[in-house]
Amino acid sequence: MRKLLLIICFIGSASWLGAQSGTPKKITLFTNVQVFDGTTDRLLNRDVLVEGNLIKAVSEEPLAVIQTDNVTIIDGQGMTLMPGLIDSHTHLNMYKTGSLHEFEGTTWEEIGARAAAFAQEMLAMGFTTIRDMGGAHVGLKNVIDEGLLDGPRIYAAGGFVSQTSGHGDFGMLTQRKGETNMERLEIARVVDGRDEVLEGVRRNYALGAVYTKVMVSGGVTSLKDPIYASQFSDDELSAAVETAEDWGSYVAVHVFQNPDLKRSLELGVKVIDHGLNISEENMKLLVEKGAFFSPNLTALAPEALLHPAHQDPDFPSTKKFMTLREQSTNLTAYVKKYKPKMVFNSDYVLLTGVPYRQCMDFTKFHMAREFGNFWALQTLTVNGGELAKLTGPGNPYAEGDLGVIKEGAYADILIVEGNPLEDIKVIGASDKWFGAEPREQDVPSIKLIMKDGKIYKNTLE
Ligand SMILES: [Zn+2]
Fold first, then answer.
1. pLDDT tens track for 317-334
2. Among residues 218, 162, 260, 211, which one has the least CA distance to residue 389?
3. What kind of fold does domain 6-83+405-458 have according to CATH?
4. Ligand 1 centroid to 152 CA: how many Å?
5. How far away, in angstroms, is 55 Cα from ligand 1 center?
6. Which positions fall inside the Amidohydrolase-related domain (predicted)?
7. Which tens digits make up the pLDDT trace of 300-315?
8. What's the CA-to-centroid distance between 347 and ligand 1, angstroms?
9. Burial 21-35 (b: 16+ CB within 10 A, else e)
10. What CATH class does 85-394 carry?
11. Separation of 295 CA from ligand 1 center, angstroms?
């Protein structure tokens, strides 16, 4: 029980009023909430004060503010206040159904409009930050940050960096390097040899990328490369790492094969994306190096076998998918044993609307089913926020921390009905995937969504 009522008098605090800078900053006080702060495995009885776009105070004692036009007091009705969610692997510019080849006939206007729809979709699900893992530059981010469009914060990789016939070479067999729409639009960079890698990665940074994504193994959806293919030489990969480091940032790799995983870590790659079939030796190495692990875990769920795309056993991607699953039986055990810094990775492409929502909702559930709610929530919050900082001096959101509820952090806040540490469904998770009841964009159990101090949704009343 909290007995003391602490009255905060803003009159005496010029900085809290923002008086020195002219216009006073907006104040929001959240009371009557239980706080999941991102790092503690239980809910805390706290009041949370937001000033402008940052969290100003997280108090054990009840807070009170003097009511002015500038002040909003929100009674959380005993619900859970938690950090906005972070998805550390999305593809804004691939929010489209069909096959990869259809991008060859899609205009930039449509791809851009679809990305805007995707951004709105993500914010409506409570994702206040995404790390876009290739394809997006900062055009859409700028529009969102300017307040013209609702969407999450975006950490953009720029065009994904692939060798010829690699996982990011999406053209048809008749198209050679430089001839594809994806390259013209700079969504993909097909580069070979050290010089072209340097040029491609440098070009990404010029367009606003804050880190680099490189494909170093075969992939499931791509059509020109077998899953076992090793991609890029050490020299080429090193060129990407050196360039990223020149910009004060890091390289994340799309990787499946263990030899590629090992050499990536040894060459200075900081984030392993996918890596579902990681060996025990490589998991140890990943933890030793302090790298982040970003597995698209849902591919290994039993429910994934029901994926409509995988119903034809002769379809090339299905064969690759099945091979990968057969090689990836120890992932959960290694994660539990070595506890890598792990982030949430949805990585859905070629899906929109209801099927997209079903995948996302199930992915949250599956993460919690495999590793427990606290672990899943950390991947979705504090761990994603820590990963965001790897972008170094180019970090576009360096004013505060992301993924945590603490003083000085960005005011990216959800209020959800129920305790997500006990029931992951309160953040929109679903134990059903393909058979799930179709839902609208809105997630009803998320009652409030605040990003950067601005309230985008409030159904508490
Ligand atoms: Zn991806």
1. 899 999 999 999 999 999
2. 211
3. Urease, subunit C; domain 1 (2.30.40)
4. 18
5. 32
6. 80-430
7. 999 999 888 788 888 8
8. 5
9. eeebbbbbbbbebbb
10. alpha beta
11. 10
